[in-house]
């Protein structure tokens, strides 16, 4: 079963995503950026179809994960969408300096999560068919 990484320090968010995709995808969760990077290092990247990444996490934040993906040329393998509760326009601007797919503002519904995950992983399908 293909996997989606959800990097968010809120267990509520992780559980919403897990419930939305139960039986469809394996949900790998991280509560901070360091754990997210470790998931990237320790899993078969061909099995990961996308990542939902919170920007504001304790310790290592989402921007550090974005930097890791950038410096390791992983954006073309793993499409990323941001989930955030932040209202700061500077955060939005900075996030879109990376080749992310989209940004979802908290709080959100299961339908919103499904829409953004479908959009995120469909980028992987497009990239695969172009190779």
Structure commentary:
The protein is of the alpha/beta class and 131 residues long. The protein has one domain: Rossmann fold, CATH 3.40.50.2300. It has helices at 11-20, 33-42, 62-71, 89-95, 110-130; strands spanning 3-7, 26-30, 48-54, 80-84, 103-105. Strands 2-1-3-4-5 form a five-stranded parallel sheet. The radius of gyration is 13 Å and the shape is globular. The model has no long low-confidence stretch (mean pLDDT 90).
Short description:
With 131 residues, the chain is of the alpha/beta class. Helices cover 44% and strands 19% of the residues.
Principal-axis shape: globular
Structural class given helices, strands, pairing? alpha/beta
Q: Would you list the SSEs in sequence order as H and E?
A: EHEHEHEHEH
CATH class: Alpha Beta
Contiguous uncertain segments of 5+ residues: none
Helical percent range? Answer: 40-55%
Name the assembly state: single chain
CATH 2nd-level architecture = 3-Layer(aba) Sandwich
Strand order of the largest sheet: 2-1-3-4-5
Give the distance, in angstroms, between the N- and C-terminal Cα atoms: 22 Å
Query: Strand content of the residues, in percent?
Result: 15-25%
Number of domains: 1
Beta-strand segment tally = 5
Query: By CATH's scheme, which homologous superfamily applies?
Result: Response regulator
Radius of gyration: 13 Å
Write the CATH fold name.
Rossmann fold
Q: What's the tally of helices?
A: 5
- Average pLDDT metric: 90
Q: How would you characterize the largest beta sheet? A: 5 strands, parallel
């Amino acid at each position: 079963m293909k996997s989606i990484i959800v990097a968010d320090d809120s267990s509520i968010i992780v559980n919403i995503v897990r419930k939305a995709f139960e039986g469809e995808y394996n949900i790998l969760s991280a509560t901070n950026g360091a754990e997210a990077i470790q998931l990237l290092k320790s899993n078969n990247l061909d099995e990961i179809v996308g990542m939902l990444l919170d920007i504001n996490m304790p310790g290592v934040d989402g921007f550090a994960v974005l930097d890791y993906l950038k410096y390791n040329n992983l954006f073309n393998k793993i499409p990323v969408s941001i989930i955030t509760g932040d209202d700061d326009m500077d955060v939005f601007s900075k996030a879109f300096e990376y080749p992310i797919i989209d940004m979802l503002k908290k709080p959100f519904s299961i339908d919103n999560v499904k829409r953004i995950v479908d959009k995120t992983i469909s980028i992987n399908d497009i990239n695969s068919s172009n190779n």
